[in-house]
Every structure is written in structure tokens, then in C-alpha cells.
Amino acid sequence: MAKYMLLIYGDAEQWESMTPEQGAAHDAAHVAFRDSAGVQIIGGHELVSSPVATSLRADAAGDVMLTDGPFLETKEALGGYYLLEADDLDQVVKLASLLPEVRAGHSGVEIRPVLEHE
Amino acid sequence: MTDAVGAAVALAHRREWAQVLATTAQATGDLDLAEECAQDAFARALKTWPQTGIPDRPGAWLTQVARNQARDELRRREAFRRRMPLLVTDEAAAGPDAGLDDDRLRLIFTCCHPALAREAQAALTLRLVCGLSTSEVARAFLVSPATMGARITRAKKKIAEARIPYRAPAPDQLGARVGVVLEVVQLIFTTGHTAPAGPRLIRHDLLDRALDLGRLLHLLMPTDAEVSAQLALMLLIDARSASRVGDDGRLLLLEEQDRSRWDTDQINEGVALLVRALRHHNPSRYALQAAIAAVHAEAKTWADTDWPAIVALYDRLLTLWPSKVVALNRAAAIGMRDGPHAGLEQLDPLLADPTLATYPYLSAARADFLRQLREWDKAAAAYEEAIALTGNDPERRFLTERLEAVRRASA
What we know:
Chain B: GO terms for molecular function: DNA binding; sigma factor activity. Chain B: Pfam families: DUF6596 (PF20239), Sigma70_r2 (PF04542), Sigma70_r4_2 (PF08281). With 118 residues, chain A is an alpha+beta fold. Helix content of chain A is 26%, strand content 36%. Chain A contains three helices and six strands. In chain A, strands 2-5-1-6 form a four-stranded antiparallel beta sheet. Chain A has a two-stranded antiparallel sheet with strand order 3-4. Chain A starts with a strand and ends in a 5-residue tail after the last strand. Chain B has 19 helices and two strands. In chain B, helix 6 crosses helix 8 (145-161) and helix 11 (225-238) runs antiparallel to helix 12.
């Protein structure tokens, strides 16, 4: 088994402008995903939208600088994540294909293997 | 003896490399290690066979040597690290296969996994399935060996770290995954058919590799209509390759070719495969392309070419596969059927298309219709454009001759 991070990217404005019906269908798809993945899910959360983010980076003198906003200013921001355990990439692709963000047009899911430090 | 051994090893390399590597990879679950051991086995054959004689089944000998060495190496590593390798035999063997249990098939599907970039898929297939060296693969795709080496290393790293499984796809996935494999084989074939650059029109080494791969896939999946159609397409096109270049290295157009030099056995084989593939209700794009190639192959003379049939096939192909290149070929076929005016009219809307902006065959097709209409100045401009866009020497020479003829006519 290996660990994989599913990073859900998309346009926050479009997420926030879902109708109640769309929102309900969206939530139901996440429930279906979590049911399918079952115990393979180790963690996961939806994140508060990216303008609320705070980014840290040290300057040349080593002083930590805080900036308001996400690390990368892009239209398609990180909206949430799942951490999964799976045998191989094919298994993760199959599960991740259930996520509603894959089909929403403005959004998508990135799969990143987790590097295990011993 | 040494010459015979050298030839036997070279033949075994071409025919058995994929099997030796695939079986070793299956036993170890480690592509890099399998590749090293397969290379060592071929090197050892060069040293051993002069003394022992060439074995009756060179592939079996090579596989055994490679696998033993891989097992020894894994044992050494395990003792050294005192832990299991990342992928062990049992795990690599698990997983649903579509009854396609040939190791070579697993190897091909792993190299052509959709999570890899198309360029990486083709490079890995040439490197791992065909056994080409990194510099040979680099030459095929016109990049430096260092760039290609980095690309291959990166793809192998992704296979290991993202855990792209070493197996053929499950039945419900097979359709989509075969498509990717066929596109890779087709890419290798097309690159060989008209080399994007260089002194030769045709790269026979790449054509042979693509045909080997097509035959292998057909052997492993004999009932897959798309696989049959793609092999048919390659056979029908390759059957004409001997006549495409004159003795002086000059490119010969289809209308100038000596049809007696076409390989009739290969044409018959391609047509037979195509006929079987066409029994399916929804022919693939390869089946339609092969049908077009078959119409050309079966015309006794250039004048006998059945252009209405070819246009009709392009019509269907364009609906199935709306590619700009198909639209261009269809436009050219309409010009052949209805004359140069009609051809130019069909080509005109394609001029604005950015995907064809650097495609030399659009300019070349226009140039030819303009030449037929005796629009010398416009034809010359179109030939100049085509010359600037092609990177292939025989093509450039052909176009330059045409340009000079057009200029003489206008003077």
C-alpha cells in the first residue's frame, strides 16, 4: 500500500455560485466517493477559500515574511484534499474519478504520491 | 563462428528483447533492474555462445540468464537493506488481467499508461519494448540524447513512485487503453514513414520497429478489430515504401511510382486483415485509413485510382476523427476527383487554421493545384512556403525542383 494525496483544484467563485440543488448533488457525490474509498481514506478536508490563506516565506535575512493570500495566485485554487491509501495509481484513478470536481468543467483533481520518510 | 554469433545475438535482440525484459520485469517488479539484467544477458551471450554454440532457443537462454541475475541481485539487495524491495513478485503478479497474461503485453501497457505523457509513452516503448538505446530513441524524436535520457529517467521514476501497476488493463478498461498503445505505435510508424528531418525520406529502422510492435499486438490480441486495422494500415502503406524514392534518392509521388515494386504479399496480408476488421459495425479510424490505403494499393495505375471512393472514405473518417490533417487530405482528394479549382476551394478555409500554420503539406498541396492552373506566381510562393517548412532533405529537393520548373514556366 502507498499513500496518495488527492488535491482538488477549481474556481472558488463557481463553487460558491452553485444552486442548492447543485450543492446537494455535489455533496452526495462526495458521500459516494467516501463510501467507495471506505477505510482507504486516511484524511481529508474542505478548505476555506484561498483569499483567506496566509503564506509564509523567509526573506534574504532569514526573517519570516507573512503575506496575505495563497502561495500561488491562480484562478484555480486548492479547495480541499483527501489523503488515501491504495495499492497503485490505477486504483486511485478509479476512486478519484468519482469526485464531482473531475466533471465540473472549471475544476479537477491532482493525484500526488506521498513520499514516505522512514 | 563469431560472425554467426554476432548475427544470432542481433536477431535475438530484435525478436526476443521484449520477451526477455518483460519476463524479467515480471519476476522482479523492477523495470530498471530488469533492463540492466536483460542487457547483461545479451552481453553474456556474445561471450558465451562462441564457446557453447548458439542455443536452440536463444530467447529462453537469454531469459533464464537475465532472470537468474535479477534474482541474485535482489537477494543481494535484500540482504544489504534487510527489507523487501518496493515491489515484490507476488504483488506485481496480482491484479485483474483481461486474460492477456503475456508479459510483453504487460510491458507495453505499462509503457503506454495514460498517466504518462505521449512522448514519454513512445520513448519508453521504443526503449523498453523494442530495446533501442537512449541515443537511438533520441534520434527518432530529434532531441539530444541527454534530453531523451532525462525524459526516460523521469518516466521510469514516475512508474516507480506513483506506482503505475505492471499489468495489462482489466477488460472494462481495455478498449480505452488499447487506443493509447495503438497511437504510440502509429506515432513511431509515422515518424519512420516520413522522417521529420534529415537526409533520408524514410527511416526503415522505425518502420520495422512499428511493424514488429503491430504484429506483436495482433499476436497477443488477435480478435481486437482496432489492432487488426492498425496493422493493416501499416502493412498497406509500408508495402509501397520501396517505390517512394528513386535510385537517385529523389522522392517519387504516387503518380510517378513503379507499381511493380509494391510488395503484393504485404498488400494481400493488409487487405485480408482489413476485411476482417471491417466486419465490425463501427470501423475505427485505422480501418478507414487502411481502406483508403487499400484503394490506392489496388489501383493498377495512377489513372485507375478510384477518387470518389477515396473521398467517400475521407468523409467518414472526418466525422469519426475531426483532425485538420484529415480535412487537408480530404480536400486534396476532392481536388483529384473534381479538378484543381475544386481542390483550392476546399483548401482555402484551412489556411486560417493555426494548427496547420507550420504544416508543409498544406502549402505543397496548394502549390500543386496552382501549378496545374498555371498560376505560376502564386504557385511559386506556395512552393517557397512549403520548402521553408519541411525539415526533410528529399522533400525539400523535390519541392525545389518543382519551384524551379514553375519559375521557368513563368519567365
